[in-house]
Amino acid sequence: MGKSPTAPKATSATESPGNRFYRTVWRWHFYAGLFVIPFMLILAATGIIYLFKPQLDAMMYHNLVVVQPNGTALAFTEQVERAQAAFPTATVTQITPNIAPDRSTEVLLTTADERNLMVFVNPYTGQVLGQRDEDHNLQAIARKIHGDLLIGQTGDYLVELAACWGLVLLITGLYLWWPRHRFAVLGTLIPRLWSSNQRIFWRDLHAVPGFYGLLLIGFLILTGLPWTGFWGDTFAQVWGRFPAQMWDEIPESTVLTGSLNQRGQVVPWAVEQFPMPQSHLSGANHAGHDHGSSAATNEAAPAPQVNLDFVIALAQAKGAPPGFSVTLPEGKTGVYTVSAFPNDPTQEVTMHIDQYSGEVLADVRWND
Question: Under a CB-based contact definition with an 8 Å cutoff, are residues 274 and 364 in contact?
Answer without folding.
Answer: yes
